[in-house]
Structure formats: structure tokens, C-alpha cells
Amino acid sequence: MRKEEPSKNTAQHPLILLGERVEREGVVIIDDVTNQPLDGEPYISPYAIVALCQQGMAQSEYDMKRVEFHAHDMTIMRKGHVVRSKNISADYRARLVIMSNPFLEKLRLRESFQFNTHSAYYYQHPAFHLSDEQYRQMNEAFDMLKTVSTVGHRYREEMLLSALNIIFMLRYEFCPIPEPTNDDAVHLLSVRFKEAVIEHHRQSHEVSFYARMFCLSPKYFSTLIKQDMGVTAGEWIDRYVGLQAKTLLSHR
After folding, report:
1. Dist CA 125 CA 119 (whole Å)
2. How far is residue 49's CA from residue 250's CA, in Å, rounded to a whole number?
3. Strand 127-129 relative to strand 48-55, pairing
4. Cβ contact 78:192 at 8 Å
5. 181, pLDDT greater than 70
């Protein structure tokens, strides 16, 4: 029996099948995406993704919290976070920008102030809505990035970094950060805890290890995490480590 070849429509592929291209090109732009990778199954995103919804609706879980993505919504998902697709409308269409990890690090180093100042809030609120005019401008920024990505020029990387910076700057302009509240402080702790687990889960699975990072007792730390996330710190670590192991096995 002849082995079935994968579809040539890369918009339908799980992210893992785009890996070689993303690593080779640094930035990949995909138009007319009609679904999400590994529909219905939780997975750990291997790359940072900027998505712009053109039409329709998609429901997902981002780090086990429900997120809805509607027409003219934009979202930024960081690598290493847990994503699960829940429901996608038949008319769903989106544009994706997928960045390799080395390229994302170059962008972070170049725009370190913006990343440090804005990223925590935006990753707490991954989806946000654009007005018609904002959507038009963001689409034009995506078009420019796509054009630059096809240029075979010795300064291609520098041009890509500049084009991506425009997208992020528009994001900052269109979605300003409000004044923080007490609830935001607890939520920020959860965000930083998840980032710490992503970075250090191979080093330790102990709640006390992470509690020390934030100068809190393990019991109080876990209470705050459950207050915001609905699960204890230990439960989140176990879930993440289990999913990470499953992801690694599935990619062998």
C-alpha cells in the first residue's frame, strides 16, 4: 500500500511539521489558516506565534484557561506554553507569524525594554480586539513582514526584526496597559511561576524550589497559585511535566 503523503497546504500542518522551515528561515508567515494544530489535544507550543483572526471564531485553552478568538482579534502565544484547541467555526481564517526560538531571542535582546515592560501583561491577556482601522493597519504590517520574508538579501534578518518590531509597537499602541490592581499582582505571580516551570522543570519538580524564587513559603505560594489558576502549584507542575514527556515521546 502506498504511504499517503502529507498535504502541501502547510496551513493545515501541526507546528512540528513546519519545524525545519521555521528553523531555516527564522520567521514563517502563513495565510488562510483554517484550523489549529493538533485539534482537541493539548500540546506545548514549540514556537512563539503571533496570530491575526480574519474571520470566524476559535475557542482554545491557553495554560488551561479558556480564550476565545474572534474576527479582528489578535493574539501572541509564547513558546513552551500549553495550548489546547476546543472549537473552531467552519468559516475560521487566520494569519500566523511563527518565530524560531533563536530569532525570538534576537528580537527580545534588540527590544529588551519593551519585552520586559509589556510582555507580562500581554501574556496574561493573550487575545485582544482591533477596531476596523486598527485591523487594517495590522494587516498591512503583516503584509510588509511577509514581503520582507521573501527577500533574499544579506540584511534580511535585520529587515525582519524591524518589520516585527512594527507589529509589536502597533500592538502596544492599540492595547495600552491599564494600572495594576491587587488581583493583577496575584495573576502576575502565576504568569511568572509558569515561566519558571517552563525554564526549570528539568531541574526540579518541587513546589519549594519555585516558592523560593518568589521569597514565599511553599504553602502560601501554592495557595496564591490555586487562587488564580484553580489548581495548586504542585498540580500544575505535574501536569506540565506529564505533557512535556508526552510531547517528547510523540516527536520521536
Report:
1. 10
2. 21
3. unpaired
4. no
5. no
